[in-house]
Design goal:
Elements lengths: L1 H14 L11 E2 L5 H14 L11 H4 L4 H4 L3 H11 L4 H28 L2 H13 L1 H10 L2 H22 L3 H17 L1 H14 L4 H14 L1 H9 L19 H5 L22 H20 L8 H15 L5 H6 L1 H4 L8 H16 L4 H19 L8 E2 L3 H8 L40 E5 L3 E6 L4 E8 L3 E8 L4 E5 L2 E2 L3 E2 L4 E6 L2 E9 L3 H28 L1
Antiparallel strand pairs: 1-2, 3-6, 4-5, 5-11, 6-10, 7-8, 7-11, 9-10
Helix pairs in contact: 1-6, 1-7, 2-5, 2-21, 5-6, 6-7, 6-9, 6-19, 7-19, 7-20, 9-10, 9-11, 10-11, 10-12, 10-22, 13-22, 15-16, 15-19, 16-19
Length: 550
């Protein structure tokens, strides 16, 4: 036990250089800078008591968006603890990236112990996984929290499923179910391909895997049920041209390191390399595994490493332009957007292939080869795990760019930079037209002589006192979307939409109390109840198992 713990500590020390920068007070340039504004909007929704968060109040000139319902969730929930502790958004963002590395490395170490029984081989697998080039792309170039956490969860899911193969128990089904739910709410594109791939890998215990998958879907229902059924309520985004994002074979073997955009036809594109050590593992597995298949008897044969090898080549093929026909026929595959995004699977699969491969040689030779691989992967790839440019940006820099009034400069009533920002990634309700300016006030009089006295400006439960000598029509400058309700003196009031899709309603003369609130629709409420009930039940079961065993 002491040896294993020591090996884990050493592996984390070896992996530390891949995320040490994130523990400093410095900031860096990265592609997905909107992540900082996303964090702020999630935290704002949670601060106002909206759980799960579904509406981003400040986007689209504060007319709002259901963006939070359609974006991934798990990293933001974890980041909220940092927000409660008073940490800046930039610090929370970096700590989340660092946390994803640690979770992934510990997961791969644990998987290595399970598959090889050797603390040294487990250490090597953890280091190989953490130092694979695509990890650096996700963390230091793109800065994508969702993919980072998907990579962190892959080893734990594989380990849990592998334990399920050994012995099916209710506890193991529940644990795997929780992990699959975590993946679903961590990164939608990763889950779309990971779930069928894991089902293929563990086809020998497909019934048990399906039970866990069913549980995972139930636990995460609050997220994916509205996401699917409300997709038709938002404007369709322009289809992404995935056909322009197939890397060339030579780029998968090796491509120079740049921090620019992803464009396989540009000489200064981000790197699409699988990793030289990873490719060596794949080559050796390609040679050795078929030989073993010929020598061993059919009885008791473990098919998992062979399925893993086939899956690795499968995702490599899907990254090649020759697989275009498959992409055209499978719309769900197109949701992945970038074929090169499948590098997350080669990153994981080759690290697991190493563990199966090393079991086939004597320990002395295996240890020697692992030591060489350890030195090689750190030596070859460590230079990738650093920022392209170190900057002194604080929260206000990002909020000023991506939100209209969260960080104004002296003399500004709306961020000058935001005025040039299209917010293309933020979904619009189907009847909405993005405005070009902020409204004069959140609630304005469109017709009549009503006077508005704001009682509570809460963007999710706005309250006002309206007084007028004649009937009036008012506009609440938030986009109409299922869930928004208007009540006058406690009675529901019919809504209409103005010319850009904002909420309008009529109010009679006199003095009235108006409440405009964003609430769960029956569909969302049902999915919330399903998720909460299954979560409480399964979590209680796990706690009971832990208590009774101790």
């Amino acid at each position: 036990m002491k040896t294993k713990l020591l090996a884990l500590i050493v592996s984390l020390l070896l992996v530390l250089p891949t995320f040490a920068f994130f523990l400093t007070d410095k900031m860096f340039t990265f592609h997905d800078e909107t992540q900082i504004a996303n964090l702020q909007q999630y935290f704002k929704a949670l601060d106002f008591g909206q759980f799960p968060p579904r509406w981003a109040a400040d986007m689209h000139y504060e007319y709002g968006s259901p963006f939070l319902s359609f974006n991934y969730q798990l990293p933001y929930y974890l980041g909220y603890f940092g927000h409660l502790a008073g940490l800046p958004l930039t610090a929370i963002f970096k700590l989340l990236l660092a946390l994803s590395v640690v979770i992934g490395a510990v997961g791969m170490f644990s998987l290595g112990l399970s598959l090889s029984g050797s603390a040294f081989f487990a250490l090597t697998a953890a280091v190989l996984y953490a130092y694979t080039p695509y990890q650096a792309i996700d963390h230091f170039v793109r800065g994508t929290l969702g993919e980072a956490f998907a990579l962190a969860l892959f080893p734990w899911i594989f380990l849990s499923a592998q334990q399920l193969i050994k012995k099916e128990t209710p506890t193991r089904i529940v644990v795997l179910g929780f992990l699959l739910a975590a993946l679903i709410i961590s990164h939608q594109p990763a889950a779309l391909l990971a779930l069928p791939l894991f089902a293929l890998l563990f086809v020998r215990k497909i019934k048990a895997f399906v039970k866990s998958l069913g549980l995972g879907l139930v636990i995460s229902a609050y997220y994916w049920v509205p996401l699917i059924f409300e997709k038709g309520l938002i404007k369709a985004a322009a289809p992404y041209n995935y056909a322009s994002q197939f890397p060339f074979i030579r780029q998968l073997l090796y491509s120079a390191w740049f921090y620019g955009g992803a464009n396989p036809f540009n000489s200064e594109t981000i790197s699409f390399q699988i990793g030289l050590v990873n490719l060596l593992v794949l080559l050796l597995a390609t040679i050795i595994f078929p030989l073993q298949l010929l020598r061993r008897q059919k009885k008791g044969r473990d098919l998992l490493p062979y399925l893993l090898l086939i899956s690795t080549y499968g995702v490599i093929f899907l990254m090649n332009i020759r697989s275009t026909l498959i992409w055209e026929r499978l719309p769900l595959l197109q949701a992945i957007q970038f074929p090169w995004r499948l590098l997350m699977f080669t990153t994981f699969f080759t690290s697991v292939l190493y563990l199966y491969l090393i079991k086939q040689v004597r320990f002395v030779w295996g240890a020697a080869l692992s030591l060489l691989g350890l030195v090689a992967v750190i030596g070859l790839n460590s230079a990738y795990f650093r920022p392209g440019l170190i900057v002194s940006y604080q929260d206000d820099y990002y909020l000023h760019r991506f939100l209209p009034r969260e960080a104004l400069l002296p003399g500004e009533t709306v961020s000058a930079v935001y005025l040039t920002y299209a917010e293309d990634y933020v979904p619009l309700p189907k009847e909405a037209t993005r405005p070009t300016a902020l409204p004069e006030a959140k609630l304005t009089v469109l017709k009549g002589d009503a006077k508005v006295k704001v009682v509570d400006p809460n963007p999710y439960r706005y309250r006002a006192e309206i007084t007028g000598s004649r009937d009036s029509r008012l506009t609440f400058h938030t986009f109409a979307y299922p869930g928004w309700t208007v009540t006058v003196d406690g009675f529901s009031t019919k809504q209409t939409v103005d010319k850009i899709g904002a909420i309008s309603f009529d109010i009679p003369s006199g003095k009235h109390q108006v409440v405009i609130a964003y609430e769960d629709t029956p569909l969302r409420l049902f999915s919330n109840i399903i998720s909460l009930g299954s979560f409480v039940f399964t979590a209680s079961y796990l706690i009971y198992q832990l208590v009774t065993r101790s």
